[in-house]
């Protein structure tokens, strides 16, 4: 069994890690901000997806910040990552992001010095296990190697052989479109050869799991324009992000972010509920555990933020999370409703990461989740039975019309059906599905027109 490096285990709880991070930056004249609401009405994204997102007006120079140095713990929920949950040891849909920011104040050298000071002298990490990456440059942006960042790491005594230049995809940060951007420097922990690919050239940037990124230091220096070119920002900023679950995995020596203190009680509860079976592949079993605890923690965070399961917008995201988690329970052999019973263990494990008022509202969240799971239970049972009886074509493809019929007649989501089929090695003829959707719309439109003509 793979184990993390014992020398890196500190035993700090997630709450303690958070307090040490925030107090470190408070002592260095950073104003601590309250976490912004997870749900953002009228925003381009349904939920906060990054720690810096609430600070964009300051980073863009549109508003004056309350202080030039800021720090915070921000709850985030990324809907794009939902399908990735369970595929590795650290991908979450909902997570906590620790951050510190300079709004036109300090620069690369200062943030690098503070970052290494925190990691070595507060968190007690071994310098010999740390690697960093820097931006190697890109001729399309007319930028060369980020020599200032390299000099910053050398200045604090970082070994030059563990400073790795990487390209635009890895070490040039953007918002995903036009807007603030800049080179970044990522900090990695070497988890040891047992997690690696065996290559002597293995280093950050390799696709194996040996090097684990824990902190990203973004040097926000440019404005990325719509045509792909960049111009200097009038104000240079620093934006950093450290995933709480990631650093907890390292400091607690768990080897998986799903085994940290925030999830232990919920996993134990889940293991009590699951009957266990030798027929179930252990990798598949672990995948189910990860999806369930991740999705229910994300649901807890979202419902506490006022977003209940529903049909549209952000509400549909929460409904999908509940349904995916319920389906994973069936894989573990859990036939009764169980999701709401995981919420209290999750909330208790998060301690002061939730407010007292939020802890008091957990029973309300339990009722909402129980109702949603109960509504879906019969649909789930009949839908899984329907999918089991489907006969694919010779090429392993299932007719899209069948998925539409399952969705239209039984209310079973097409994306969840496709996920179930994919696990059996089957695919879906989505063109057939779309034809059925369009035909259904055509018939519905004609029916409506006929009805109104009669009226």
From TrEMBL:
Residues 12-455 form the Alanyl-transfer RNA synthetases family profile domain. Its EC number is 6.1.1.7. One of its GO terms (biological process) is alanyl-tRNA aminoacylation. Keywords: Aminoacyl-tRNA synthetase, ATP-binding, Ligase, Nucleotide-binding, Protein biosynthesis, RNA-binding, tRNA-binding. Transmembrane segments: none annotated. Gene3D superfamilies: Bira Bifunctional Protein, Domain 2. It is an enzyme of class 6 (ligase). GO terms for molecular function: alanine-tRNA ligase activity; aminoacyl-tRNA deacylase activity; ATP binding; tRNA binding. One of its GO terms (cellular component) is cytosol. It comes from the Bacteria. PANTHER family: ALANINE--TRNA LIGASE, CYTOPLASMIC, ALANYL-TRNA SYNTHETASE. Belongs to the class-II aminoacyl-tRNA synthetase family. This is alanine--tRNA ligase. It comes from Ktedonosporobacter rubrisoli.
């Amino acid at each position: 069994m793979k184990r993390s490096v014992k020398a890196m285990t500190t035993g700090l709880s997630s709450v303690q890690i958070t307090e040490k991070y925030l107090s470190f930056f408070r002592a260095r004249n950073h104003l601590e901000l309250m976490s912004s609401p997870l749900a953002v009405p009228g925003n381009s994204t349904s939920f906060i997806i990054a720690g810096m997102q609430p600070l964009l007006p300051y980073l863009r120079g549109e508003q004056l910040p309350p202080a030039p140095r800021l720090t915070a713990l921000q709850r985030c929920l990324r809907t794009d990552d939902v399908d990735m949950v369970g595929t590795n040891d650290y991908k979450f849909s909902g997570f906590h992001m620790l951050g510190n920011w300079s709004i036109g104040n300090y620069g690369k050298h200062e943030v690098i010095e503070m970052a290494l000071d925190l990691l070595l002298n507060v968190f007690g990490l071994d310098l010999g296990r740390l690697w960093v990456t820097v931006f190697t440059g890109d001729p399309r942006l007319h930028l060369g190697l980020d020599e200032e960042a390299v000099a910053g790491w050398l200045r604090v005594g970082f070994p030059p052989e563990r400073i790795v230049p990487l390209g635009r995809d890895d070490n040039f940060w953007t918002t995903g479109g036009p807007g603030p951007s800049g080179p970044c420097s990522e900090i990695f922990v070497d988890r040891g050869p047992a997690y690696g690919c065996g290559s002597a050239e293995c280093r950050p940037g390799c696709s194996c799991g040996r090097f684990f990124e824990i902190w990203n230091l973004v040097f926000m220096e440019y404005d990325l324009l719509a045509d792909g070119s960049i111009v200097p920002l009038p104000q240079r900023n620093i934006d950093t992000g450290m995933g709480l679950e990631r650093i907890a995995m390292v400091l607690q020596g768990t080897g998986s972010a799903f085994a940290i203190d925030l999830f232990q009680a919920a996993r134990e509860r889940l293991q009590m509920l699951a009957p266990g079976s030798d027929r179930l592949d252990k990798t598949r079993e672990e995948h189910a555990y990860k999806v369930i605890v991740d999705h229910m923690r994300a649901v807890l965070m979202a419902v506490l933020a006022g977003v209940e399961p529903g049909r549209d917008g952000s509400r549909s995201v929460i409904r999908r999370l509940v349904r995916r988690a319920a389906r994973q329970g069936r894989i573990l052999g859990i036939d009764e409703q169980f999701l709401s019973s995981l919420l209290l263990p999750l909330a208790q494990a998060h301690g002061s990461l939730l407010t007292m008022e939020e802890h008091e509202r957990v029973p309300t969240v339990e009722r909402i989740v129980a109702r949603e799971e109960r509504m879906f239970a019969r649909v789930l049972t009949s839908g899984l039975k329907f999918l089991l009886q489907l006969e694919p074509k010779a090429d392993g493809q299932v007719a899209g019309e069948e998925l539409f019929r399952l969705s239209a007649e039984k209310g079973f989501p097409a994306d969840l059906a496709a996920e179930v089929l994919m696990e059996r090695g089957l695919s879906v003829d989505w063109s057939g599905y779309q034809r059925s959707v369009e035909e259904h719309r055509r018939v519905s439109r004609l029916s409506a027109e006929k009805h109104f003509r009669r009226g």
